[in-house]
């Protein structure tokens, strides 16, 4: 049971993703997991929103996430399009540490609400010399808090909240990595809505929703019209978008992406009239397995991509973001790849003789006696094996539930390391004869002006005085300090051991 619980939680946290796209008329929910460097979609569902508490948003979440086994650890969700604030502006080039304050000051002049009533995020990129181009997105904090409430009461962490314009711009980049020019994205959503986005330099410039003069429900036959059927209602907006992109970017729109429409010959005719090729997105980051990656689900497919990859732009509150241990995934995977805890997991639970270690042959020999227990073994051997299994289970329980050797320590590194320093590697090991006798070794570097043995000693003293960092260990020591020169810069390499 312990093995299954630990494995299930690890799988939920680090290898599975759940995305929710909330539109005015429906909710799309997608689930997926990592598979050989790609994403395998396992579930893709659409739920129309009807009136009444039981059938509304709450009712949908209650039905889909009805039990502990079906409840994900985290969810990636969108900022509602009709509540989104998107702005672009430029600020003069300044030091990186001052950008956030400058953006907050400048953004206030472009916003319809006081900035302290908003949850927001921004991305910077350099288009003009001596200036930072800023893409700024926001939503009222009240709405964000309501969104968080929907999920947290179901014990789901809404760790990523993303704006759709950034996701659509990322789609273009993923669809054609070499393309960075200007384009227009036109997405149809039932019952009568068009999402229009202009993108260039891999960032959004224009975003709006257009209401059509008729309705077709998601369940209706032919709910998804052809581009030709709705063209007269959006033609002016598309032409405006093309002209706007040319004015703002000094570039000609080279492509129009469409999604959510029934395929037809209208697309070639309209492309010829506009003099701009029309194409549909494909999804190269998905495997061929699972549900069809139909472009009518475009927004939730991009959200599920970011559930298992780096988000485009996350405007979730920082206290929610910090609660998500997925942020340490890459370190976690490296950490476990070469650590003794793998030995404990395999020997105690899986019985698989496959792990990596410099002392592999010696450890394999030690483990042989524990793995070859059968009814003919002496009672002393059985008791010894039992003791080892119990100790392993307790150790792994501490590791995952009390965060004794993992998230606590990784969080401590972020807090305690000074500026201009970084971690090169982390090694965890323990003596097989005493599973709770552990060693935690951090190798790192300090750059330039801070580069001295004094800086390494300061880090050591900070470790010693931090309760979370020292929990589970009796002492900390500076194993080595070495100065080196890289590209004319002095770097101090250090190694600190916790035992």
Q: Which secondary structure elements does this structure contain, and how are they paired or packed?
A:
Elements: H1 2-14, E1 16-22, E2 26-35, E3 38-48, H2 57-64, E4 74-78, E5 85-92, H3 96-107, E6 118-125, E7 131-140, H4 141-152, E8 157-162, H5 164-175, E9 182-189, E10 193-200, E11 203-211, H6 227-249, E12 253-259, H7 266-274, E13 278-279, H8 298-307, H9 318-322, H10 329-337, H11 340-350, H12 360-371, H13 379-401, H14 407-416, E14 421-431, E15 434-447, H15 453-464, H16 467-470, E16 476-486, E17 489-498
Parallel strand pairs: 1-4, 4-8, 9-12, 12-13
Antiparallel strand pairs: 1-2, 2-3, 5-7, 6-7, 9-10, 10-11, 14-15, 15-17, 16-17
Keyphrases for this structure?
499 residues, alpha+beta, five-stranded mixed beta sheet
Structural overview:
With 499 residues, this protein is α+β, with helices and mostly antiparallel strands. It has a domain of 171 residues. 37% of the residues lie in helices and 29% in strands. It contains 16 helices and 17 strands. The strands form four sheets. The protein has a five-stranded mixed beta sheet, sandwiched between helices. It has a five-stranded mixed beta sheet with strand order 11-10-9-12-13. Helix 11 packs across helix 13. The radius of gyration is 27 Å and the shape is globular. The two termini are 31 Å apart. About 10% of the residues have low confidence.
């Amino acid at each position: 049971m312990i093995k299954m619980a630990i494995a299930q939680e690890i799988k939920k946290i680090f290898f599975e993703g759940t995305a929710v796209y909330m539109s005015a008329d429906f909710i799309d929910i997608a689930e997926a997991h990592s598979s050989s460097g790609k994403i395998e979609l396992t579930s893709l569902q659409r739920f129309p929103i009807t009136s009444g508490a039981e059938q509304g948003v709450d009712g949908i979440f209650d039905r889909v996430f009805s039990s502990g086994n079906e409840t994900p650890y985290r969810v990636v969700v969108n900022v509602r399009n009709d509540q989104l604030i998107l702005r672009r502006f430029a600020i003069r080039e300044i030091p990186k540490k001052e950008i956030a304050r400058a953006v907050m000051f400048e953004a206030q002049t472009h916003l319809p609400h006081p900035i302290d009533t908003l949850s927001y995020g921004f991305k910077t990129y350099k288009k003009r010399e001596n200036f930072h181009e800023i893409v700024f997105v926001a939503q009222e904090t009240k709405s964000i808090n309501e969104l968080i409430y929907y999920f947290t009461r179901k014990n789901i962490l809404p760790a990523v909240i993303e704006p759709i314009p950034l996701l659509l711009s990322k789609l273009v980049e993923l669809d054609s990595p070499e393309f960075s020019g200007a384009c227009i994205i036109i997405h149809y959503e039932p019952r009568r809505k068009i999402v229009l986005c202009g993108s260039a330099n891999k960032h959004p410039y224009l975003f709006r929703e257009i209401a059509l003069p008729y309705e077709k429900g998601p369940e209706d036959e032919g709910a998804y019209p052809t581009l030709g059927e709705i063209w007269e209602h959006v033609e002016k907006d598309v032409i405006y978008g093309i002209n706007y992109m040319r004015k703002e970017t000094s570039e000609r729109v080279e492509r129009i992406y469409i999604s959510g429409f029934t395929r037809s010959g209208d697309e070639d005719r309209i492309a010829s009239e506009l003099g701009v090729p029309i194409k549909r997105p494909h999804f190269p980051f998905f495997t061929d397995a699972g549900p069809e990656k139909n472009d009518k689900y475009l927004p939730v497919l991009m959200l599920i991509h970011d559930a298992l990859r780096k988000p485009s732009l996350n405007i979730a509150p920082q206290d929610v973001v910090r609660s998500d241990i997925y942020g340490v995934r890459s370190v976690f995977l490296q950490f476990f790849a070469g650590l003794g805890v793998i030995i404990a997991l395999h020997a105690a639970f899986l019985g698989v003789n496959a792990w990596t270690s410099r002392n592999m042959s010696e450890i394999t020999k030690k483990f042989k006696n524990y793995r070859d227990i059968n009814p003919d073994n002496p009672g002393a051997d059985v008791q010894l094996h039992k003791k080892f299994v119990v100790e392993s289970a307790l150790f792994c329980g501490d590791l995952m539930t009390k965060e004794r050797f993992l998230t606590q320590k990784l969080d401590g590194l972020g807090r305690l390391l000074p500026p201009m320093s970084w971690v090169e590697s982390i090694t965890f090991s323990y003596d097989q004869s005493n599973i709770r006798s552990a060693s935690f070794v951090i190798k790192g570097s300090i750059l330039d002006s801070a580069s001295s043995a004094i800086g390494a000693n300061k880090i050591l003293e900070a470790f010693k005085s931090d309760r979370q960092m020292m929990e589970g260990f009796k002492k900390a020591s500076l194993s080595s300090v070495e100065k080196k020169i890289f590209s004319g810069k002095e770097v101090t390499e250090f190694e600190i051991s916790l035992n």
